[in-house]
Amino acid sequence: MKKNKLQVGITGGIGSGKSLICKIFSALGVSVYDADTRAKWLTNNDETIKNKVVEHFGKKSYNSNGLNRSYISSIVFKDQTKLTLLNSIIHPAVGKDYVNWFEQQQSPYTIKEAALMFESGSYENLDRIINVSAPIELRIRRVLQRDSFRSEKEVRSIIDKQLSEEERSGRSDYLIHNDGSQMVVPQVLKLHNQFMEIDRLT
């Protein structure tokens, strides 16, 4: 594997459509790491994480299905300090997991998908960042259609805790519009060709 393989990050607020964009890159043969999915897996399977979560949040943190998400959410979404603590337990583990994954990849460049890319600091180890953009009201509708267990109040609370669209876009290298104003596939193909050219020149 080339040591200088290009590492691209994809971020965006909840409901922006990051997963859709990643599926298109994946269809083009690009290896994609889903940080949020891996974080959920690690939280349920990594004994170090589980012990730390129980230590700080109590035995109710886990049930027969794994992490008791409703219980944890009821704590961290009301207390920023608790949310920061939870992230400090999970994010470093995801970072190590990503490095192990990346070292095994063979595609010309790789994609790391993460909602909290800037908040977690993981963007610092990536070469390019793409922000997937969509208006807040559209994102809320998408999440409510996708996650029947969420309320609009909860979705808005999540959005309030994420970076604003303006700040996320300003800190990113590229922007993909996923608001219906233009097709996403041509946008992805354009970036894919750019990244393939960067790989060819390195």
What does this protein structure show overall?
This protein is α/β, with parallel strands linked by helices and 202 residues long. It is built from ten helices and seven strands. Helix 2 crosses helix 5. The strands form two sheets. The chain has a five-stranded parallel beta sheet, with helices on both faces. Strands 3-4 form a two-stranded antiparallel ribbon. Helix content is 55%, strand content 14%. Strand 3 and strand 4 form a beta hairpin.
Strands of the widest sheet, in order across it, are 2-5-1-6-7
Q: What is the end-to-end distance?
A: 13 Å
Low-confidence stretches: none
Order of helices and strands: EHEHHEEHHEHEHHHEH
Please bin the fraction of helical residues: 55-70%
Number of helices: 10
Topology:
Blueprint: E1 6-11, H1 18-27, E2 31-34, H2 35-45, H3 47-57, E3 62-63, E4 66-67, H4 69-76, H5 80-102, E5 109-113, H6 117-120, E6 128-133, H7 136-146, H8 152-161, H9 165-170, E7 174-177, H10 184-201
Parallel strand pairs: 1-5, 1-6, 2-5, 6-7
Antiparallel strand pairs: 3-4
Helix pairs in contact: 2-5, 7-8
